[in-house]
Write a structure and sequence with these properties.
By secondary structure, this protein is α/β, with parallel strands linked by helices. The protein is built from 10 helices and 9 strands. A hairpin with a 2-residue loop joins strand 1 and strand 2.
Length: 252
């Protein structure tokens, strides 16, 4: 419990957040109160939330797959639906994993590989992921470009939570994402699959025989991703739960 806790703090903060449109006002109020060290810090946090900043950026972390993951301002906030990627990756042999478009590094951290390499094109994401992971294995660059050559044909699992929102649909996203997460983490091009297609096309050069490629996508996009994987020599399967869709494939 933070030092900002007072007898009326929860009701007061929850009321302020509810008036600002926060659906889970009580839960958010409790988190802010427990995170703040002083009353002044609590007031600042509440003001930021009322302005629309993501809760995770305000407190500086998110709970993902039972782990506390640091999240810096501007960095993509891990979605809880992405736990499906983690579960599916854990079900594969995963001694060596490459996480493309790693953001904060949450997916790779949750998979728990013996050897994890993480890549992002956004310097802010790389700086954040280096706080959560071995900084020597978090690389700045475009997809496979910065990976060390010795990984070719020996990676067990490649995971990618690459941007898959069509450019024209970004304006329809919640303001928390649209205004406060860097666009490079959201924009997947005209049909949302520009980066996903590049992930798939590049994967055979890096995967070990019978290695696995896992890509998060939308339910509507999944058939197109599956077909693209087949054209690139994979045997893909669409995996879904009530919230998420992953196309999972193994190299022939």
């Amino acid at each position: 419990m933070g030092r900002a806790q007072t007898p009326d703090a929860l009701a007061r903060v929850a009321g302020t957040l509810r008036a600002a449109g926060c659906v889970f006002a009580e839960d958010e109020a409790q988190l802010l109160i427990s995170s703040a060290e002083t009353v002044d810090e609590l007031e600042w946090m509440v003001a930021q939330r009322v302005r629309g900043l993501p809760l995770e950026h305000i407190v500086g972390w998110v709970s993902f797959c039972g782990l506390r993951v640091a999240v810096d301002p501007g960095v993509f906030v891990p979605r809880q639906r992405t736990a499906l990627v983690v579960r599916e990756a854990r079900s594969c042999p995963h001694a060596t994993v490459v996480d493309l478009g790693c953001g904060s590094g949450a997916v790779g951290l949750a998979i728990g590989a013996s050897e994890l390499w993480s890549v992002d094109i956004d310097p802010a994401a790389v700086a954040c992921a280096r706080r959560n992971l071995d900084p020597q294995r978090v690389l700045l660059g475009d997809l496979y470009e910065p990976l060390p050559h010795h990984l070719r044909r020996r990676v067990d699992v490649i995971v990618a939570n690459a941007p898959y929102v069509p450019t024209d649909a970004i304006g329809l996203m919640p303001a928390e994402a649209r205004l406060h997460e860097h666009r490079v983490a959201l924009d997947g091009g005209a049909d949302g699959l520009d980066i996903v297609r590049r992930v798939v096309a590049g994967a055979p050069a890096w995967l070990a025989p019978h290695g696995h490629l896992l890509v998060e996508t939308s339910r509507d996009q999944a058939p197109a991703v599956r077909d693209h994987m087949r054209r690139n020599g994979f045997e893909p399967t669409i995996v879904t739960d009530e919230d998420a869709t992953v196309v999972k494939a193994y190299a022939r």
